[in-house]
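@channel sequence for tomorrow's demo:
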Amino acid sequence: MRLVCAPEDFPFQENGALNVVLYGRPGLVEDGRSARASAGQAARTDFLRARLEAAPRAWDLLSLALAIVAADLAVWRSQSADGWTREIELTVAVADAAFWNSQATALETALKFLSTDRWRLTFIDGGMQPAPPRDPIRPDQDGVVLLSGGLDSLIGAIDLASSGLNPLAVSNIVRGDGDNQAGFAAAIGGGLSHVALNHNATPPWTKEASQRARSLIFIAFGVLAGTSLAAYHDGGEVPFYVCENGFIAINPPLTGSRLGSLSTRTAHPEFLNRIQDVLDAAGLRIRIKNPYEHSTKGEMLKGCADQTLLKALAVQSVSCGRYRVFNYKHCGRCMPCQIRRAAFHAWGEPDTTFYKFAPLGRNDGDHSNFDDVRSVAMAIAEARSDGFDAWLGSALAYPRMGDLAPIRALVERGLEELATLHKHYGVK
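structure tokens (generated this afternoon):
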């Protein structure tokens, strides 16, 4: 599918491509429905209203990320040749088309790894570049931390504040998580400054549900905020903390059928390292860091520097991959829920989270026979019968992974946390 993504004053052509209005309204056709997709108007308005001044190429990166998330929502996997892998041809208006075209291949490779789709990127001139605020505010924070409303980002922000750092918390607003994001920011370190943005990507038809490429919008929001800091304007490098336990960041395929983008790769080191290469090429002095790339979720809970605050807030965090499906409740049986429950078990503190499907050992389609529960059980059994390395296979065979020894050890400990959870509930 072809998409053309540009500001609303761009001379769009009606030539069969889906036109995506960036930072504006899509416009209406005769029956009152939008003939175009749109994304980014609220994010631009809220960022500029805060009188923040970001680097020009950070705005270009945001334009690309908005185009990616719009495409991710607009292009249905069910209409692809194999029912999953999409062919997406994306034209994006930016301020510096020559530079971004020089990075197109690198970005296509990163996006293919992220979503397993085939992307073709072309950049054209005419992208949005806002005028600097008359009296810009340059925050004095010493870094940026993503605050999603999840447990890992909560622990990361607590640990950073406890170490004496003062990060700017940045959130992608998601329905059901907004209150958590604001509440966590207010509770940590005496109150963290908080920038909450919403991509508002809206296609003119029903959204594709898989959303495997949305990670780039998190990165773009963090980079945008990071380049607004006083430290950045003074010529310094700004750390950008993307806090995720290493097991779910790697998200190794549990069985032979759980491959590729059936497992998310939001904080996978292969993806983050490839995006870091693009940031470096762009001269954007933002350094992406995951302090927990070699830690399990249980180890993050046990090692958190402020146990009192964590105990007060942990149960409010959201982990479930189907949270909205079950009326903003944890299902208890999806992969993220199982990792959360295993982590609480390893931590040794009571898990008072409400789980719709709590007794994982119950032998029915809602509990032990649910696909994700069976996949974990099969992975545990295979690792024990055939050996851990045979089960792991080629899951770490990527060129930008870094040192593999600690990653392998981390995955082994993460699988053992899940095994302990399954033993506790009698999953067979």
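heads up for whoever presents: The chain has a mean pLDDT of 94.
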